[in-house]
């Protein structure tokens, strides 16, 4: 039933539209036009204004032909860099870029699949429940679109995001994450003339980081130091250094523990430097810990899982629940009481110039989503 040719064309059209984070106006215009042509009630919220982007999230509502609770379908409109001037190549059934940009299958494969499924429903007058399509901005730079989504415009309490690799998996577990920023304040001095008057902030931070256990802490916990900035010149003892990192875990207690360990490593490195001199109180540490996103943990008997599994079974396919170490818009929706299972579209090697997606996988995802919508309309697997 899926129109393979049209799906390929839609995908090609969408990836050719530049839409790096905060610059989604052009693609949003196209999507709004297509959704409006399908007689959806299309609106955009003010997330763009809040985050300093070009445009807001799209919320498109399709009235149901049957009365069941609404279901949400989510994908994001933005891409990472290098994402400008993408020229898709379709060779032996696989889409890739020319090699100097990403492809943008993350997440335009999802946009194309959702549009194709909606067209099929419209053309064939297929019965369906109320559908709420939410296309977000700026997912790739900290889930900013979802975090600033006007949730008053959404009424569904469950649904699906299409933003993963495996079309035969539904991601039901994702970690919580903390965002950490450390600033070590040392003291500047001429590195050649009076180094003894200085306190080297970079060295203190270096000791703190060297003392940390980074990377994989256990099967559900990770942490990372990702950015370090400091120093002005090689002949100045550096006065400040700023370090950014993150910690993630599927378990809140473990998240708190690994976060505390990172903070303690900095506290210790500063303390080990020796007591601060009384007049200037240096060195000292400033730090902030922010919850970046909250974990998702959808139980096996949740309708998101039963719908995905039943739909796959009807198509003679497997469907398994998956756990991820990454965060996605779904984490933010969870915080607002909306459980989203995250389904794969076949996208591979995301965020690299080797990114690709098989047309077959996009077709398979569209078939799955269509079957999910059919079951949803029957109130089955609920
Ligand atoms: Zn994505």
Cα-based radius of gyration, to the nearest Å: 24 Å
Oligomer category = single chain
* SS content category: alpha+beta
Poorly predicted tracts of residues: none
Content of β-strand: 25-35%
**Element order, helices and strands?**
HHEHEEEEHEHEEEHEEEHEEHEHEEH
What ligands does this structure carry?
zinc ion
Would you report the number of β strands? 17
* Overall spatial form: elongated
Write out key terms for the chains shown:
382 residues; alpha+beta; elongated
Short characterization:
This protein is α+β, with helices and mostly antiparallel strands.
SSE topology sketch:
Elements: H1 4-15, H2 25-37, E1 41-44, H3 47-51, E2 58-62, E3 71-76, E4 89-91, E5 94-96, H4 105-123, E6 131-136, H5 144-147, E7 158-164, E8 169-174, E9 176-185, H6 201-210, E10 215-218, E11 221-230, E12 240-249, H7 252-272, E13 284-293, E14 296-297, H8 303-314, E15 320-323, H9 329-335, E16 339-344, E17 356-358, H10 359-377
Parallel strand pairs: 3-6, 3-7, 7-16, 8-15
Antiparallel strand pairs: 1-2, 2-6, 4-5, 5-17, 8-14, 8-16, 9-12, 9-13, 10-11, 11-12
Helix pairs in contact: 1-4, 4-10, 6-7, 8-10
The structure holds zinc ion (ZN).
Zinc ion is lined by residues 76, 106-107, 139, 163.
């Amino acid at each position: 039933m899926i129109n393979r040719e049209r799906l390929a064309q839609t995908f090609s059209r969408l990836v050719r539209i530049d839409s790096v984070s905060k610059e989604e106006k052009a693609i949003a215009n196209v999507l709004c036009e297509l959704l409006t042509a399908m007689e959806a009630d299309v609106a955009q919220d003010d997330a763009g204004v809040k985050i300093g982007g070009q445009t807001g999230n799209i919320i498109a509502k399709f009235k149901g032909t049957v009365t069941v609770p609404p279901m949400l379908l989510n994908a994001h409109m933005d891409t990472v860099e290098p994402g400008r001037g993408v020229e898709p190549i379709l060779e032996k059934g696989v889409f890739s870029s020319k090699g100097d940009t990403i492809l943008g299958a993350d997440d335009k494969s999802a946009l194309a699949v959702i549009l194709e499924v909606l067209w099929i429903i419209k053309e064939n007058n297929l019965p369906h429940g109320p559908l709420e399509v939410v296309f977000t901005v700026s997912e790739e730079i900290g889930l900013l679109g979802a975090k600033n989504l006007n949730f008053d415009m959404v009424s569904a309490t469950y649904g699906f995001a299409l933003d993963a690799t495996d079309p035969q998996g539904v991601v039901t577990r994702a970690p919580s994450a903390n965002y950490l920023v450390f600033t070590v304040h040392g003291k500047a001095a001429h590195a050649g003339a009076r180094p003894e008057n200085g306190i080297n902030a970079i060295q203190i931070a270096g000791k703190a980081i060297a003392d940390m256990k980074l990377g994989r802490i256990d099967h559900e916990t990770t942490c990372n130091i990702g950015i370090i900035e400091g120093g002005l010149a090689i002949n100045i003892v550096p006065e400040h250094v700023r370090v950014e990192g993150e910690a993630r875990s599927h378990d809140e207690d473990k998240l708190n523990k690994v976060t505390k360990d990172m903070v303690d490593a900095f506290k210790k490195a500063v303390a080990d430097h020796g007591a601060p001199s009384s007049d200037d109180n240096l060195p000292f540490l400033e730090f902030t810990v922010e919850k970046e996103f909250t974990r998702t943990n959808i139980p096996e008997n949740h309708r998101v899982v039963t719908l995905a599994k039943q739909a796959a079974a009807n198509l003679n396919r497997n469907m398994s629940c998956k756990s991820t170490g990454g965060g996605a818009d779904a984490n933010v929706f969870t915080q607002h009481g909306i459980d989203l299972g995250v389904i794969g579209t076949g996208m591979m090697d995301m965020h690299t110039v080797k990114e690709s997606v098989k047309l077959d996988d996009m077709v398979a995802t569209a078939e799955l989503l269509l079957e999910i919508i059919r079951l949803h309309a029957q109130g089955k697997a609920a």
